[in-house]
Design brief:
The protein is of the alpha+beta class. The protein folds into three domains: about 5-105, Rossmann fold (3-Layer(aba) Sandwich), CATH 3.40.50; about 110-125 and about 200-320, D-amino Acid Aminotransferase, Chain A, domain 1, CATH 3.30.470; about 130-195, ATP-grasp fold, A domain (Dna Ligase, domain 1). It is built from ten helices and 17 strands. The protein has helices spanning about 15-30, 90-95, 105-115, 115-120, 145-150, 175-185, 230-235, 250-265, 300-305, 310-320; strands at about 5-10, 35-45, 45-50, 65, 70, 75-80, 130, 130-135, 155-160, 170, 190-195, 200-205, 210-215, 220, 240, 270-280, 280-290. The strands form four sheets. Strands 7, 12, 13, 14, 15, 16 and 17 form a seven-stranded mixed sheet that branches. The longest helix has 18 residues, at about 250-265. The model has no long low-confidence stretch (mean pLDDT about 90).
Length: about 325
């Protein structure tokens, strides 16, 4: 009898639409000869099979009644960006009820999703990083103090969030209040980071018991001021070049650092690590523990260049966790 794999997408953040697109693609890619695959859509506290109007998931034992038959899922493939997926809430639920899942554990997911504390933790492995400060919603700090701490230009973005939602590149002190207000719409904490001019790259990492996959880095060239939501998801607004046009020794260092980050946190499943290269040195930006998986996303592009099908890659991840 085939194992029943649930693919969870949607969620309660601005990335829900992106997540659902990724979820549909993951459903298509998972090997149907090995597994029975069921899409589950997350909207608020309501989890439904197939779509928002489908049968409701019983969260007591992670099952559903369909056509009078009870289906109990054996594995959860989580592709929910933001909350409750990437921040560890969903991982905690599955760990409590004893269902294996595809992502990092609760602690790792929560820590890596918090951009500021992730950077603090990574100081132990001596990564180069942009200067950053954390600003809380009710904190009294002047625009002048912020500019003095990190310099101008700078980036102001939600501390816990993705897809560049709520993110601004600020060039003057006068632009800071509006950028803070924009970011606070997404999160109650905002990270303000030094702007580092250079080449942006992203590297996929997957480590199983049998093999470590270090994908060729992707170089990101955007037509916008930075790689914002529009540039990421509007055709023609950015160019993603795999492999990145970088020296071989920089590419090797990217692999070394990305694996070091993955192993430091004890990550699980497919992870993407982002950097800025300045003067052939890599500055860590962030780690994505549930990266986008639509056909146009970076990980599938890298897998194609690496020479592995997404079906085989997803099978490797699922089998590693189940065995």
């Amino acid at each position: 009898m085939k194992l029943k794999i649930a693919v969870l997408s949607g969620g309660n953040s601005s990335e829900a639409e992106v997540s659902i697109r990724s979820g549909r693609q993951v459903v298509n890619w998972i090997d149907k000869e090995k597994y029975d695959v069921y899409p589950i859509i997350i909207m608020g506290t309501r989890w439904t099979l197939d779509d928002e109007g489908g049968p409701v998931i019983n969260k007591t034992d992670f099952s559903v009644i369909k056509d009078g038959e009870k289906i109990k899922f054996d594995f959860a493939y989580i592709i929910v960006h933001g909350t409750p997926g990437e921040n560890g809430l969903m991982a905690g639920y599955f760990e409590l009820i004893g269902i294996p899942h595809s992502t990092c554990n609760t602690l790792v997911s929560s820590l890596t999703f918090d951009k500021y504390f992730c950077k603090l933790a990574l100081r132990d492995i001596n990564l180069l990083m942009a200067k950053a400060i954390l600003v809380k919603k009710d904190q009294k700090i002047s625009p002048e103090e912020i500019a003095k701490a990190v310099g101008l230009p700078c980036f102001i973005k939600p501390n816990a969030g993705g897809s560049s939602c709520g993110t601004s590149k600020v060039k003057t002190v006068g632009e800071i209040p509006a950028a803070l207000e924009f970011a606070f719409k997404e999160d109650n904490e905002v990270i303000v980071e030094e702007f580092i001019k250079g080449t942006e790259i992203s590297c996929g990492v997957i480590k199983t018991k049998k093999k470590t996959y270090l994908f060729p880095a992707t170089e990101i060239v955007t037509k916008n001021e930075f790689f914002d939501y529009e540039a990421k998801y509007t055709p023609g607004m950015s160019e993603e070049i795999t492999p990145a046009r970088i020296p071989e020794h920089v590419a090797k260092e990217c692999h070394r650092l990305s694996l070091a980050v993955y192993e430091f946190f004890g990550c699980k499943g497919i992870v993407r690590v982002d950097y800025i290269i300045r003067d052939e040195k890599l500055y860590f930006l962030e780690i994505n523990t549930i990266p986008g998986m639509s056909e146009a996303s970076i990980i599938p592009q890298q897998g194609k260049v690496y020479g592995i099908s997404m079906t085989d890659l997803l099978s490797a991840v699922i089998e590693d966790i189940l065995n």
